[in-house]
């Protein structure tokens, strides 16, 4: 039964990517600045921790239960995944300035279901290979994306003093060129992971991450331009100088 799950879950993730991508241009996911009025849920910090927790704990269980756990590449890839998700679940969520913010229950449920569909197959299907050029390229991309994502999230966090909830225009670093460098970094991370791991779940995760974050980057960009008349005109949504 678990083997069947590991086989069909990434196919479901891949099949959902296109409809999710298209629908998110019309209906932005309800959280953060795009939260629907009257949405009910948990405090945002707790919501982030709960919804991302399967990507730490279910993944760790699946990774350590996999047939090649303990081999060199499976060890490196598992630690790479956990580096991202321990940061996201515990560090990012602990540091966020979420005064009075709610994580809507519907968004949380969808995220938990997705994270289970995604993290268990990713953990179980990791396989050992020799450290070839693809592993080197993939891990390098992952680390570059991770650094971009960390820095961009840090810039946003420091726009608010503790207790503040408002929004201002982020400046510096990759914000000079794009409105959502945190998403660009995230997409690079999972592209790198997919190149290094070369498994169907890793490819499906990268495709779904793009399907999720490209429309949201567009919504964020449109939101900034509508809210701030002095928003930098040369700044793009996600890809410097292009889009
Ligand atoms: P946002 O950029 O919308 O927000 C990140 C944090 O910064 C929030 O606490 C937000 O507050 C705050 N913030 C955002 N813009 C401003 C501003 N202009 N002024 C002041 N504070 C601001 O990112 P997300 O919440 O969508 O995502 C958070 C992280 O999770 C990112 O690193 C992203 O890459 C990752 N992520 C990954 C996904 C994946 O598919 N792998 C999916 C979604 C997110 P508030 O919440 O109050 O708006």
H/E topology pattern = HEHHEHHHH
Largest sheet: 2 strands, antiparallel
Summarize the amount of helix as a percent range: 55-70%
Strand order of the largest sheet: 1-2
Low-confidence stretches: none
Q: Give the radius of gyration.
A: 18 Å
Please state the average pLDDT score: 97
Roughly what fraction of the amino acids lie in strands? under 5%
Cα(first) to Cα(last) distance is 43 Å
Number of helices: 7
Secondary structure tally: strands: 2
Structural class: mainly alpha
Overall geometry comes to globular
Molecules bound to protein: NADPH dihydro-nicotinamide-adenine-dinucleotide phosphate
Structure description:
- The protein has helices at 2-24, 44-65, 72-95, 105-124, 133-157, 181-197, 200-227; strands at 41-43, 102-104.
- With 243 residues, it is mainly α.
- Strands 1-2 form a two-stranded antiparallel sheet.
- α1 (2-24) packs across α4 (105-124), α5 (133-157) runs antiparallel to α6 and α6 packs antiparallel against α7 (200-227).
- The radius of gyration is 18 Å and the shape is globular.
- 37% of the residues are buried.
- The mean pLDDT is 97.
- The structure holds NADPH dihydro-nicotinamide-adenine-dinucleotide phosphate (NDP).
